[in-house]
Amino acid sequence: MARRKPIKSLAKERKPEEKRPSNAERSAYFARREAAKVLRSMLQGDARRRAVGSIKSLVYSPSIRNKKATFALVCQTLKHLSLIKDVMDGANVLTAKWRKQEELMYIITYDFLFGQKGSFTGDAEKYHAKKRCTTISSITDFKAQGVKDVEDLVALDKLSELQKPRYVRVNTLKIDTEFAIRELGQQHAVQEDDIVPDLLILPPGADLHNPLVMNGSIFLQGKASSMAAVALGPKPGWEVIDACSAPGNKTVHLAALMKGEGKILACELNKERVKRLKNNVKLAGATNVKVMHEDFLNLDPRDPSYSKVRAILLDPSCSGSGTAFERLDHLLPSHNAGGTDQVDIKRLQKLACFQKKSQQWRDSFIALVQFIKLKMKMSSTLFCIWLHPMGFNWQQHFHSGLAVASQLLTGTDLTVDKEGFFIALFVRKSIHQPEDYCTNAENRTGSISRKSARRKKPLNIFVARMLKVSPGQQFKLSRKRAQTPASKGV
Ligand SMILES: C[S@@+](CC[C@H](N)C(=O)[O-])C[C@H]1O[C@@H](n2cnc3c(N)ncnc32)[C@H](O)[C@@H]1O
Questions:
Q1: Closest Cα to atom 18, ligand 1: which residue?
Q2: Which residues line ligand 1 at a C-beta cut-off of 6 Å?
Q3: Which terminal residue of the chain, N or C, has fewer Cβ atoms less than 10 Å from its own Cβ?
Q4: Looking at the keywords, is Cytoplasm present (predicted)?
Q5: pLDDT tier for residue 391 given thresholds of 50, 70 and 90
Q6: Into which CATH architecture does domain 163-220 fall?
Q7: Domain 223-431 has CATH 3.40.50.150
Q8: Ligand 1 nearest atom to the CA of residue 318, by list position
Q9: Which residue has the higher pLDDT, 300 or 197?
């Protein structure tokens, strides 16, 4: 049996003049440390892509004494991790000393924001308490939103959840959008999304116990998530890899965009999640999907089975759930020699990466983007950036850091969409084809030559919608910044 590693004694942390902590304070102190240990294993496992077990299995190990409190603390901290990190970043809580106990700081910040009130026992807690008075008030982005104290912040967080509209994506393999609008319209006010085709917006809190959901005619899918497959834009008849596919929301979306034609190789590492993936594929009627229980990094790009693959969707994060990794480090050269080379499939034309925003992940993402551009001779053609509800300005960072000003798009309304995600779309330079940039009508009539298409590239419908201009409008996506309404404001 593994030896139980003692948690630092509370007595050692207590100065002689301090009063003895109450039993409740003692048990909260230990629960926070036990929770930090579990959280550390979960996050480290995530980062290394080594599943360390479920939260439950870790909490129910013999070394954890206060199982109930530890379990609650871990789950709740993971649930609010993004807000917690924002607060900690804003107040600069993690100095070099405390970075070593990062997870404990997450837990304490959770308790401070949402949980325990009153006095906290322990050195880390005391350090946190000192920072606490400046924590909220010092964060300019919170100030701008009228957040003065913890209560305001928690209320803002809850409010933003409550006000979130519900998005449903119509599965066009089964029904068309007009039919869905009619059916759902009997119960709710339904709006069509102005960027993502076949995505409908319902009021916050709309009850979706609906037969259309049960029979796979519509999928409950957020706006950002629904944009990934559209950004990749596979054509009917293509072969596509969905590298990290379970539970399959984007897989079946790809299938719908491809009108059920061609082939989607849907890879999934996790055996349990493969079952969910298969169920969803069946429910959606996506007959062109081949589910593969595989680690996509082990696929051999020289294998003739992948020679026809033209696009890859890469969606590796599962933030907060602890079931997968939150960062893209494993794709970087230092973490996996030649990792990205492995997707250098000859006919590969497009690769879309989809990631949830997190502070930690930013640097990995930038390195990955640069690596892919360099190694795969791909140009990064599109960045869609949602600002976090708290309003951190990521757009500036990418603007200067990646010098992709002409392709940097900010297209969503913070107050409405409330999601923080990135999509990076890479298109291989050597096989740009005019049809990728032309409207369908122009393609059919052959009204623009290959040469002129290269010179004047009309935006595809997705990009056009992001920019809120008409799809046929011509833009010079040249070395100069594109003169678009959106880019002027960037
Ligand atoms: C964010 S989820 C994917 C969500 C999915 N694209 C959707 O829209 O429904 C990430 C998935 O990737 C899987 N995964 C992680 N690493 C993988 C790998 N190397 N190969 C295949 N699947 C992987 C995880 O098990 C998890 O199910």
A1: 295
A2: 49, 225, 244-250, 267-270, 273, 295-297, 315-318, 324
A3: N
A4: no
A5: very low
A6: 2-Layer Sandwich (3.30)
A7: yes
A8: 1
A9: 197
Identify the pLDDT of residue 157.
62
- Looking from the CA of residue 277, the nearest atom of ligand 1 is 9
Ligand 1 centre to CA of 271 (Å) is: 11
Q: Per the annotation, does 245 bind a ligand?
A: yes
> What are the domain boundaries of the chain?
10-160, 163-220, 223-431
83 pLDDT higher than 70 = yes
The more confident residue out of 288 and 92 is 288
**Residue 296 predicted with pLDDT over 60:** yes
The pTM of the whole model exceeds 0.80: no
- Chain segment 118-163, per-residue pLDDT in tens: 667 888 888 887 776 455 555 555 555 666 666 666 666 666 555 6
Alpha carbons 385 and 401: distance in angstroms, whole number? 14
Ligand 1 pocket mutation pick from 244, 271, 294, 342 by most atoms within 8 angstroms of CB: 244
Question: Is 384 annotated in some ligand binding site?
Answer: no
| ipTM for the whole complex | 0.99
pLDDT of residue 122: 86
Pocket probe mutation, ligand 1, options 223, 245, 299, 315, max atoms within 8 Å of Cβ: 245
Over range 351-378, report the average pLDDT.
Answer: 54
CA of 247 to the centre of ligand 1 (A): 8
